[in-house]
């Protein structure tokens, strides 16, 4: 078994992980990056729309306060206000910094970073590169890490002197010292199947989301909730796990690419949604909260594209959960296509050339995979599991969890987005909090007197657990178990939820949990995907259990959580976060309630009293 | 049911196995591989992530063509056709369809990173869309390494890998060369002298397989070659430039790799050592136990073994050293 010593170990090599690693290395710490895939393949590449930052390049009325307001509104005021504030204030700097790393965003006329409209954002705010912004972000951060390695090579003669990437390596367990602080991480190299132990006083989790527990999802195989589960087992807490974002527009045809996202900029740039009757149905679904900002007639909506100051925006630009719900209702009412979707059409408004220019990879993808020419015909789209708002509970300023030495950033952390994330806020989220996590992990490591010790017995237990599926004769097929888990989550804990179904889901998940303990894998240890999946299943299961339990508990509808039996938003529930932890004795998921932090008065003043009244209880309003 | 042949094995060898797999309408090759995993071969190794042609993980050779498995529709094959799937040939196999692509990451490291302009603060970067677009084309690269796999300079020529960075890194060099604010002015020289651009004889195979349709040869390699030639003040080219239109110019002959090692350029004020070259350190011969043989009785010469190894001949070939002579330009 290999053993390494580092000051900071970052688990996850997506945007948040890489940004954290850069910061830790800049703070002079010896840093390791653990990546489940090859370097630069992380799921961040899938983000298409852009990174939201109130730079005000396109509309100078934009500033952090407006961005903050939009974020809170999008999250239905359940957000951790401090995180939303830091995010809105710091994201422009984080974007500009990327340019010094070599990023090339699309430009405005006067040569600044161009910004585009996006659902839920009041002004054009998303820095973008065509529709491959996520790729640009990953590549830029990847290349920055290479440039740091080149500096180290010049100084020490070794590229990996101070920052090293462990590609295709999976962490299965965090190691705690006898005092309960982080001491290291244990895992295996996917290539060889050999084990590896990292001894480190500070660990940053940046493992992304949990979407692989769902059948129709935009997420890759890596999204098995590893960070969520590792944190739980180490004693940290998860919050808001009931809030999952279903992207309103994933591809529903052809079957092989079911779940691939059609970027929201298709709507931002003038795409319209119609049902099979040819009706532009979004006008029927504007909720009261948004009534004032959205157009009432197609004519007004059309005018908005050329004259946004005197017209209201088209309802296609509503926050994504509203759009997802509208599409779901249309399909349920029998006005959807055969494959269970509706039509999204850009060809009517934009000339073919502009579409190709503005949405190149979208055009490319549809042409190549479905033989659909989006410049001529509509796309068939429907809701897809996309993002988890919930995650590891962290301190807003330091990204620290309740376990000393454990930090979390990006999608696997919770609180920033409240009950619903605005498009474009995740790329800026991972930059802002990735940096903070790296910075504070480095500071934490510096402040320690000695290095916490890993207990050898923990290492033995972890390696025994990891090897168990390989030696289990007649164990269950991991692919079958994963498939059944996806069925349960997709049909019982999906976009629209009911009490009876959620209860059933919890029973089914408990049964699956028993079976997962008996999972088997054939073959050897070298690059064996069956074995890898067998080990990931445990994580997917515990995270799914959190989601199901929290979804049952929250008897209201808000953002990414829709209860058919409780369709209204309830101001009392706005004050409550549902927190998941593991019971120390049984290892079962335990749910507790915790008050949502109260917004500071100066931030509260950014909102209209009348607007707050839609979200808050009378009692809260009278106090403010 | 369709017939598939999938290569299975590892670095020690392997074979093509036959499979009968169910295929549904609208599926791609990667779906079929996944079905094989789920139903017949749970330990079949294969890389993938996005299943949308965006991450570049699922590169393999399908009926001999280097392709992304997630972007190869089954409908492009005849019903009766046997689909043969093999790992990328240019890189060493780890297991089944997974290869060791570390060569590419090594080459990426050897290429000097973006050099930010010293006097422009973050937030003050100003560039015109038209100027960034040229580099943006190359930044579309998803690092699938299909071009690297296809290029005949390294395909079946292991020995060229040391000198040759490959098309993926020529476009990276071109991207930085065309970056409006990159502070380094020697990208082309670097490409010729350190990346082995001269080995490329513009066969365009790399462009053909690029799933992002990046015009690797036309937009990156050829301009880089041309400009290197003209930078060297070839008088003919200079005159030709003055009297001919651009399209009348003769295509520049590809620069040949220089004899011995390529000359090394070193920044002013820097030590006469080029760290970005990886040169194998001359070391002593070691026995199977990893130690130098210190037994005088068995030695074929008197006195202690040379610290550089008794096999080493002096003088050393300068091409293998990191040191360069400051006087030699
Ligand atoms: S054009 Fe050059 S780089 Fe491309 S495949 Fe041919 S020799 Fe290789
Ligand atoms: S240039 Fe094209 S073929 Fe080569 S790695 Fe990039 S995307 Fe792949
Ligand atoms: S799986 Fe990402 S490119 Fe094929």
Notes on the structure:
The complex is a heterodimer of chains A (624) and B (329). In chain A, the strands form six sheets. A five-stranded parallel β-sheet of chain A has the order 7-3-2-11-18, covered by helices on one side. In chain A, strands 19-17-12-22-23 form a five-stranded mixed β-sheet. In chain A, strands 1-10-9-8 form a four-stranded mixed β-sheet. The mean pLDDT of chain A is 91. In chain A, 60% of the residues are buried. Chain A has 624 residues and is α/β, with parallel strands linked by helices. Chain A starts with a strand and ends with a helix. In chain A, 38% of the residues lie in helices and 16% in strands. Chain B is an alpha+beta fold and 329 residues long. Helix content of chain B is 26%, strand content 11%. Chain B is built from nine helices and seven strands. Chain B has a five-stranded mixed β-sheet with strand order 2-1-5-3-4. In chain B, strands 6-7 form a two-stranded antiparallel sheet. The longest helix of chain B has 16 residues, at 216-231. Chain B starts with a strand and ends in an 86-residue tail after the last helix. Mean pLDDT of chain B is 81; it is low at 249-264. At the A-B interface, helix 3, helix 4, helix 10, helix 13 and helix 15 of A face helix 1, helix 2 and helix 3 of B.
